[in-house]
Amino acid sequence: MDRFSDLLKKVTALFLTASEAGLALVSLILVVYLLLGGNSGNFTLSVVNNLGLLVEALTPQAIVSVAIMFVAYAWMRRKN
Predict the structure, then answer these.
(1) Which of 3, 38, 39, 43 has a Cα at 20 to 30 A from 74?
(2) What 8-state DSSP symbol labels residue 38?
């Protein structure tokens, strides 16, 4: 069981690292878009367009549910 727990921790760390790298990349692309504007290239414009569509798709109910999940997760981590 100890080996499985170690493996699960490694996989979780891998996913966390990949998520952080992806968020950093998207942030960098947004900075490039802010600096260059409409001449920043097709890929940058498509990323900004997709982020805009994501923000439009988020409803207040979805934001509240994510906030509730975050609070519950933080509360569970603090109990342990």
Answers:
(1) 3
(2) G
pTM attached to this predicted model: 0.68
Tokens at 2, concatenated: 């100890």
Give per-residue pLDDT as tens, 12-49: 999 999 999 999 999 999 999 999 988 989 999 999 99
- Closest to 31 measured CA to CA, from 18, 48, 14, 15: 48
**Residues near 31 by Cβ (< 8 Å), separated by ≥ 6?**
none
DSSP state of 58: -
Q: Which helix (H) or strand (E) holds 53?
A: helix 42-57
Q: How far is CA 79 from the centre of its chain?
A: 25
**What sign does the dihedral 77-27-42-46 (CA atoms) show?**
positive
**Residue 29 neighbours by CB distance under 10 Å:** 19
